[in-house]
Amino acid sequence: MPPGASLQEWNEELTLPGQFQVVAASAQKTYRIETTGTGRLSCVQLAFGEVVISQAQVQLPQPALLQRSSVGESVEMIFLLSGDSTETSENPASAPLWGAQHNLYYDVGGAQQIELVPDEGRYEVTVIHLPKPYFLRLLREEASDLAFLASFQDGQPGFLCAEHLAMTPQVRWVLHELQHYAGQGVLKRLFLEAKVLELLTLQLAQMAQRWDESATSPETEFRPLQEARKILDDHWQRPPTIVQLAKRVGVNEFRLKKGFKETFGTTIFGYVSDLKMTHAKRMLLHEGRTVTETATAVGYKNPQHFTAAFKRCYGILPSELKQ
Q1: What are 242's strand-pairing partners?
Q2: What is the CATH number of the domain that holds 17?
Q3: Where is the HTH araC/xylS-type domain (predicted)?
Q4: Domain tally for the chain?
Q5: Model pTM?
Q6: Which one is predicted more confidently, 78 or 147?
Q7: How far is CA 273 from CA 123, 220, 237, in A?
């Protein structure tokens, strides 16, 4: 498929949020679409009330353009797990959203064109559609207290945070829970709503911290930090030392440690520790591993040290997780 080819044929087969008819306490639709010469798309849409959660995985041989249009005002919670994307629309162009970043997008409707850039052929994103009245009901009159929502209150479309936010282990875990919950009926609706509110709280907290710190890292400074985080994401079981990591991303150790803490809100050691605990929780809950097996898998030679770290992170012993 030549660069710039359109994926519009996929849109015609997908149900947009405004057309999603909720017939039960919660509803789910699954799409698996293959297009010759283009790639493959798998999309699961979950809905409760006015809210629609779309979880999409796209396999592409090379970058491509996605055409879409929307009607009415909404706030989109966008979590890009892998790949990159750049959106242009009738509204001002937005900065590219890189893999492992997230943000809130205020959409006032209209035509949009999104360039999808896969990471090793893969593009994965979760988008949560919140109609504007629903979003305002959640914030109530306190919306005026959040200075970073000024563009939203002024009716200006675009990302609500000037700089995209780093995907933290906490955000990743909630997205994982959304994807793997097996309940049905009213329990599923309550679970979905609780997790959407948890994700929104995490997003707003990160945005507030970024606003308070007035952090405006230039792109040339941010990219090495993003690269360092990706290396840690890929090699969390055996992470490089800070000296090795600094050499790989081309900055000195001081700038790496200082910039990482300012940008991602945690130290390099703390980030790796959180990653290990997130993976450990998944192994214990969904893979049926023992505490000893999990400790070894996440890089702890002594299971007691793992147990202590797990309790510091989650407040319970790993053996109590399923109780």
Answers
A1: none
A2: 2.60.120.10
A3: 226-323
A4: 2
A5: 0.62
A6: 78
A7: 26, 27, 10
